[in-house]
Design a protein that fits this description.
Elements (H helix, E strand, L loop, with lengths): L4 E4 L4 H14 L4 E5 L11 E4 L5 H11 L3 E4 L5 H6 L1 H21 L4 E7 L23 H20 L3 E6 L1 E3 L12 H11 L2 E4 L7 E5 H13 L11 E2 L3 E3 L1 H11 L4 E4 L4 H7 L8 H7 L7 H13 L3
Bound molecules: (3R)-3-hydroxy-L-norvaline.
(3R)-3-hydroxy-L-norvaline binds next to loops.
InterPro entries: Epimerase_deHydtase, NAD(P)-bd_dom_sf, NAD(P)_epim/dehydratase
Protein name: NAD-dependent epimerase
GO molecular function: L-threonine 3-dehydrogenase activity
């Protein structure tokens, strides 16, 4: 039997583009997308189901109805929104994951993907060249839930031999779906605002350097990890993955090379600044490079050109 993919949380920034890539790879008939509400628009031949990942019986019903060989769990509450609703963020991020892990073991799902984040690092983690293993003291509920989730993934792999795989995504940047509720979202909105209004006010200070990844690289890296032979994978918590690192100042100057009249300004005292300040600046992804050949293909210059080129034809 061929691969059949179920994506939970498919309407989000990463889910929607992963779904498109998985339809291309496995055929639209073999990819089932799902989320808590209907998508704004459906792709041609898209099979979509409504589901709340906290409704274990409903998730089990989808597993039994579609018999997926791979499940991608992308439903989560991100860092900034999580700080407004910490109990909801913990419930969704943890119990959604536990439901999927338990059902994957019960129903013998071949592979599971679950996204972690560089948010698992905290104020005492090394800021530069942040290694796979180090002190991890996240102080956002999102980061705490992602760190706990990584521990669960490794536990379910070791105890039940579940083939669950994960990536610590940096801030992911894309033009197709505007993200919501993240601390790194400024690096997406800036492009939309640059084209709409020729100006952007950043909620992060100009020197706030963060690890980032272009969506094409995020999707390719995810599929490469999922395709890698299981015996090659030495990390079953979640892999560090790096693309590029930049500051709001860097990205504004890159945009000005293409849109010279673009104006950048900064607000102060935004609560997301404290979250960003607790995160690393640059990530070391040696394990991903060694275990499954990871290598990013976009940098700030090529991403900016691609973002502006694509947004020009959509805005
Ligand atoms: C957030 N985009 O900002 C997410 C991501 C590393 C950041 O996890 O919450």
């Amino acid at each position: 039997m061929g691969e059949r993919i179920l994506i939970l949380g498919a309407n989000g920034q990463i889910g929607s583009e992963l779904a498109a890539a998985l339809r291309l790879k496995f055929g639209a008939d073999n990819v089932i997308t799902s989320d808590i509400r209907e998508p704004r628009e459906r792709a041609e031949q898209e099979i979509f189901e409504l589901v709340n990942v906290l409704d274990k019986e409903r998730v089990k019903h989808l597993f039994e109805q579609y018999q997926p060989t791979q499940v991608y769990l992308l439903a989560a509450m991100l860092s900034a929104t999580g700080e407004q609703y910490p109990q909801k963020a913990w419930d969704l991020n943890m119990n959604g994951l536990l439901n999927v892990l338990d059902l994957a073991v019960e129903l013998d799902i071949k592979k599971v993907f679950w996204p972690s984040s560089i948010a698992v690092f905290g104020p005492h983690s090394p800021k530069v060249d942040t290694p796979q293993y180090c002190v991890m003291d996240p102080n956002s509920i999102y980061g705490i839930s992602k760190l706990a989730g990584e521990r669960l993934c490794e536990y379910y792999h070791k105890k039940y031999n579940l083939d669950v795989r994960s990536i610590r995504y940096p801030g992911v940047i894309s033009w197709k779906t505007e993200p919501g509720g993240g601390t790194t979202d400024y690096a997406v909105h800036i492009y939309f605002e640059a084209l709409r209004n020729g100006a952007y006010t950043s909620f992060l200070s100009e020197q706030t350097e963060l690890p980032m990844l272009y969506m094409q690289d995020a999707v390719r890296g995810t599929l490469e990890l999922m395709d890698a032979p299981a015996e090659k994978l030495s990390i079953r918590s979640s892999y560090n993955l790096a693309g590029m690192s930049f500051t709001p100042k860097d990205i504004s100057e890159e945009i000005q090379k293409i849109l010279p009249s673009f104006e950048m300004s900064y607000t102060e005292n935004d609560p997301r600044q404290a979250i960003a300040d607790s995160w690393p600046k640059r990530i070391n992804d040696d394990y991903a490079r060694k275990d499954w050949g990871w290598k990013p293909s976009f940098d700030l210059e090529t991403m900016t050109k691609d973002m502006i080129e694509n947004l020009k034809s959509t805005i």
